[in-house]
């Protein structure tokens, strides 16, 4: 191979690699599971890619809702929101899942919250149809990132904004 061809091939490979690493070539939505949230809070949780799709994962009688976000046809984020009885500690119920998500730590969000390397869960005490409840939101990422501290900061900002918005949309009034 001539030096000219080798240089051209190297430039082509570098250009292709740079194209793959450019970033999010899709529009980041302004909602999660139908709940309005600033796209700037969601953007750092999503990986680079060329295509994006958001779709429902489950809807059960209004007490549990969820959706997922795919980038380049791979599920990257899964969200779930649950209305639970006031005497149930949803973080205790899901403690094993949180351990699997990596090093869960308490966070000052809502009534109680936990942040892990690839997940976050938070709930607030509220009143729904005149009865005391707890409204919980969860976000699960497909992979643990290289920079866990940055992911935790991004999860904290996101879930701190998402919890009250989702709770309000569900009609569970803060106590």
Question: What's the quick description here?
Answer:
The protein is α+β, with helices and mostly antiparallel strands and 175 residues long. It has helices spanning 3-20, 39-42, 90-93, 95-100, 148-170; strands at residues 31-32, 35-36, 52-60, 64-71, 74-85, 105-107, 112-115, 119-128, 131-141, 173-174.
Characterization of this structure:
The chain has 175 residues and is of the alpha+beta class. It has one domain (26-174): Protein Transport Mog1p, Chain A. The protein has helices at residues 3-20, 39-42, 90-93, 95-100, 148-170; strands at residues 31-32, 35-36, 52-60, 64-71, 74-85, 105-107, 112-115, 119-128, 131-141, 173-174. Strands 3, 4, 5, 6, 7, 8, 9 and 10 form an 8-stranded antiparallel beta sheet that branches. A two-stranded antiparallel ribbon has the order 1-2. β1 and β2 (35-36) form a beta hairpin. The longest helix has 23 residues, at 148-170. The N and C termini lie far apart (74 Å).
Which class do the helix and strand fractions yield?
alpha+beta
- Provide the gyration radius in Å: 20 Å
On the 0 to 100 scale, the average pLDDT is 86
What is the helical fraction, as a range of percent? 25-40%
Put simply, the count of helices is 5
Tell me about the biggest sheet?
Answer: 8 strands, antiparallel
The domain count comes to 1
CATH fold label: Protein Transport Mog1p, Chain A
- Strand segment tally: 10
* Approximate strand percentage: 35-45%
Distance, first to last CA: 74 Å
State the low-pLDDT regions, or none. 4-21
Give the overall shape, derived from the CA principal axes. globular
- Helix-strand pattern: HEEHEEEHHEEEEHE
- In CATH, the architecture is 3-Layer(aba) Sandwich
The CATH class designation is Alpha Beta
